[in-house]
Every structure is written in C-alpha cells, then in structure tokens.
Amino acid sequence: AEKCAKLIKDSGLREYECGGLQCNSKRWVVLHMFDPFVSDADVTTFLRRYAEVRVGPVVLSDTRTVWTGKRQYLVELRRGDNSTPDGFTHPPATFSIGGGRGYLYYWDQPEFCRKCRAFGHREGACDAEKCRKCNRSWHNTRNCPVKECSLCGESGHLFRQCEKRGKDMDRAIE
C-alpha cells in the first residue's frame, strides 16, 4: 500500500485514488426527492447522518437538460452496523425530509423494508409487530408518538424548527 501511495504521489497519477476491491465502503448514491423545494443543503445534511459525503450533489438531468429531481453523491459508508451483512451503516432506501418524500439507491444496497424500516427483508415478508423507532408494540413506526426531526434525527424539534435547516453543516465549519 505504501509503495502504491508513493508511486501515485511521485508520478502523473496524482489525480487518482487507489481503492481496494474487497469491502469497499465508497458508493455512488442516486437520491431522488419528489419535492423540488427541498434544498441541496438539506439533502446533504440528511445524507451525512448515515455516511461521509465525498462528492456532491451532482444534479442529474434528462436528455433535454430538465432536472429529474435526482442528485448523485459519492459517499463513504461508516463501519459499525452489525445488523447488515457487510458491517456498514446504510442510509434508508425511502425517507422524508420535512414534507418531502424521497428514495435512494446504489450498488450493493441491502434489502430495505418500508413497513418497519429495517434492512434484510422487504415489506411483503415483514412480520414486525412493534415500532422500530421506540420499540413499543401497540403501534407501528408510521404512527409513532415519538417525534423527531427528519433532517438531523434529533428529538425535541421537528423539521420546521431545525437549526441545521438550509445549511450545509460540513461546509459551514470550513
């Protein structure tokens, strides 16, 4: 690895990055928001809850250069989630930011259940009888009385009151 890094640094390969083929944590994520008024900064802040954003957003257009509602990001998945076979923390395949709904997809994405919001199965095979958010059994995740911000994931406020709203938190620090 050191020999490869030295070769890249000393030669004309400075613009390239050397990455492994096995257990690679980098993914190109395509994220589709149905609400065109959800800002790039809010979408990026949401995505940073689950992964390190390396590049993006790149706006994806159709053949007539009309925006499709899709953004593309290069992200690096975080290690530490034992509920997935690869050990990475994956962003949810379907989500909401405020009133805007969206979904995302990428290579080697694990199966995701829209009913219980867990990985490893689809909603047709789901037998969940308790809420995934608060682990109580008298309601499902959609009707959970525990309210949390859909942007930053913290309790105590909702999207409209979020102080991170409209700010790209990583770029604000730099």
From TrEMBL:
Q: Which SMART domains match?
A: ZnF_C2HC (SM00343)
Q: Which InterPro entries match?
A: RBD_ZCCHC3_2nd (IPR057811), Znf_CCHC (IPR001878), Znf_CCHC_sf (IPR036875)
Q: Which UniProt keywords apply?
A: Metal-binding, Zinc, Zinc-finger
Chain ranges of the CCHC-type domain: 149-164
Coiled-coil boundaries: none
For this chain, one GO molecular function annotation is:
zinc ion binding
Name of the protein in question? CCHC-type domain-containing protein
